[in-house]
UniProtKB/TrEMBL annotation:
This is Dienelactone hydrolase. Keywords: Hydrolase. The lineage of its organism: Bacteria, Bacillati, Actinomycetota, Actinomycetes, Kitasatosporales. Belongs to the AB hydrolase superfamily. InterPro entries: AB_hydrolase_fold (IPR029058), FrsA_esterase (IPR050261). It comes from Streptomyces pseudovenezuelae. GO terms for molecular function: hydrolase activity.
């Protein structure tokens, strides 16, 4: 892991890093010492590791909860090079969305193309970050909605170091089998009027999650209208399960 820059704002230290070819960012409270809980945060489709929503949540979790937070650019996003096949699928996906057509087959194709790589990268980043003295091998949580949920579900299912997850804004049927393998506590977010994910599919995915402890948070509004108060609810959820 190679750190590129270090800045501080509002009691939170931000460090940009690379791990092999993976660009990432780490947020920690100022003067952080010793082991602390770590939250890995997955961004949405077409976004990146420092998208406004990711940045706001990371600062809140670090400043108010004392957590370390890490995010990466997943394949074909942010500073990552784009794959020709991924670009083709993404272009077709946007056209189908604009025309109001079913995108299930494209969801599956996009997911299948890079899910294995993304899970392996998150595991490598988790291992590297936990070797840092001011983070250590403490409990780990995952936060990711939309694309962050699509890649987060297989990661949470495969990674025993993750103890709790906030997921949602997702309902692709291809995720159901993997979701059944999740056993950690889950908070699942649904936008009731989501124009991208049919409500019935989102509820079916929540139902498929294998965790004995899982909670559904449903709010009115479209895909991008997730209420700001859900940041505080996520913080309380992680504090309950990781502290």
């Amino acid at each position: 892991m190679r750190f590129i820059s270090k800045t501080s704002l509002g009691g939170v230290v931000e460090q940009l890093f690379t791990l092999d070819e993976i660009p990432g960012v780490l947020w920690t409270p100022e003067d952080a010492h010793g082991t602390r809980p770590l939250i890995l945060m997955g961004h949405g489709g077409g976004q990146h590791k420092k998208a406004p929503g990711i940045l706001a949540r990371a600062h809140h979790f670090a400043a108010e909860g004392g957590f370390a937070v890490a995010a990466i650019d997943v394949p074909n996003h942010g500073e990552r090079p784009t794959d020709e096949e991924f670009d083709r699928i993404a272009t077709e996906y946007r056209a189908c969305m604009a025309a109001g057509e079913d995108t299930a087959a494209l969801d599956t194709a996009m997911y299948t193309l890079v899910v294995g790589q993304t899970v392996a990268e998150w595991q490598a980043v988790l291992t590297a970050v936990q070797q840092l003295d001011h983070i250590g091998g403490g409990p780990v949580g995952y936060w990711g909605v939309s694309l962050g949920c699509a890649f987060g579900i297989p990661f949470v299912a495969a990674e025993p170091r993750v103890r709790a997850a906030v997921l949602g804004l997702q309902g692709s049927p291809v995720l159901a089998g993997t979701a059944a393998q999740i056993t950690v506590p889950v908070q699942f977010l649904v936008q009731w009027d989501d124009e991208r994910m049919p409500r019935a599919q989102s509820l079916a995915l929540f139902d498929a999650i294998g965790s004995a402890e899982k909670t559904l948070h449903a709010n009115p509004g479209k895909h991008g209208d997730l209420p700001r108060f859900e940041i505080d609810d996520s913080l309380r959820f992680f504090a309950r399960h990781l502290s």
